[in-house]
Amino acid sequence: MGVTQWEQDNVDRLWVTINGYRVPSSSLRLNADNNLSILAPITSSDDVIITSMMPSATPNEEVYLQNVNKNSTPSVYRANTNTRTWLVEPLYNTDSTIYVSDVTKVTDATIQTVTATVVDGVASISLAAEKRIISQVIVYNNTTSSYISSSNYSVQVIDLSPILEITSGVSTGDSLTITTVEGNLIYINGEQIRFTTVDIDTNTITGLQRGANGTGEQTYIPVYAEVYGILTTNMLNPVDYYVTWNNSYATSLNTTEGDPLQICTTDAAIFLNTDIT
Predict the structure, then answer these.
(1) Which of 43, 114, 134, 259 suits 88 as a labelling partner, its CA being 20 to 30 A distant?
(2) How confident is the model at residue 233 (pLDDT cuts 50, 70, 90)?
(3) How do residues 193-230 score in pLDDT, each as one tens digit?
(4) Which domains does the chain have, with CATH numbers?
(5) For the stretch 169-192, what's the b/e string if a residue is b when 16 or more beta carbons lie within 10 angstroms of its beta carbon?
């Protein structure tokens, strides 16, 4: 018997049944041109099913989140290895802090280098960030080679724009590197959780609102549960919701069934495969 999708070279990646009973791989032999010998009794009336898996495990798994909210509005978010992390401690509904392996995977960071101007004891700096989802600001004074304590600055919204006001630790002319961390929503185990603050040094998330956007609050979520960042920068353009994400059959390696999404070159496939941009 022959299989023709690809050249198979490993009998352990074949699943063969005769009338529903599996034939062990030790009773299978692969010959030239994908011809398979089954070393088991078979009659003309037997039902033989052969499933041939890819010669190796599928590379570069493609994972994404597809949500439909209570208003029936769909959304798709990338969730590849660059944009998801996991719990390093279990999460109970009574907890006030979430501990993850790498909080930078579920947040976005904007870095600005600016020169400070101090007026009436305050250096005011416009932040290149979305004011509604700022979860941490880190300020490094390049001139003095030191971090400025978070107790010496705060974010104020002035004329609808986020402004960082620094009251100590900086002088006019100092060069500052400002890292603004954005993100206020994660998805874990079927639940969306809103938050207000992250700490990159301790990989913690605090200021929690459980069961956001109509999702059910989980009483207990185990350690190692995957954590996904619900970020605007991770959201697929809604224009792509109504087109095919796989390559066209004319450009596919497999012109009958199309290519797996993880090796496709459409705009949607590339977006879901890449990191935050």
Answers:
(1) 134
(2) confident
(3) 999 999 999 999 999 999 998 888 999 999 999 999 99
(4) 11-52 (no CATH), 64-104+184-273 (no CATH), 108-182 (2.60.40)
(5) bbeeebebebebbbbbbbbbbebb
C-beta separation of 258 from 113 below 8 A: no
Q: What is the pTM of this model?
A: 0.69
- Name every residue whose Cβ is closer than 8 Å to that of residue 119 and which is 6 or more positions away in sequence: none
Token pair 């200021």 is found at: 207
- In this structure, the strands spanning 21-23 and 108-115 are unpaired
DSSP assignment of 54-119 equals: -SSPPSS---EEEEE-TT--EEEEE-STTSEEEBSS-EETT-SEEEBS-GGGGSEEEEEEEE--EE
Token pair of 31, please?
């010959």
pLDDT at 269: 87
pLDDT for 142 equals: 96
Number of Cβ within a 10 Å radius of residue 274: 12
Instruction: Dihedral sign for Cα 86, 89, 94, 95, please.
Output: negative
Cα–Cα nearest to 134, from 96, 93, 178: 178
Average pLDDT over residues 145-150: 95
Separation of alpha carbons 28 and 26, rounded Å: 6
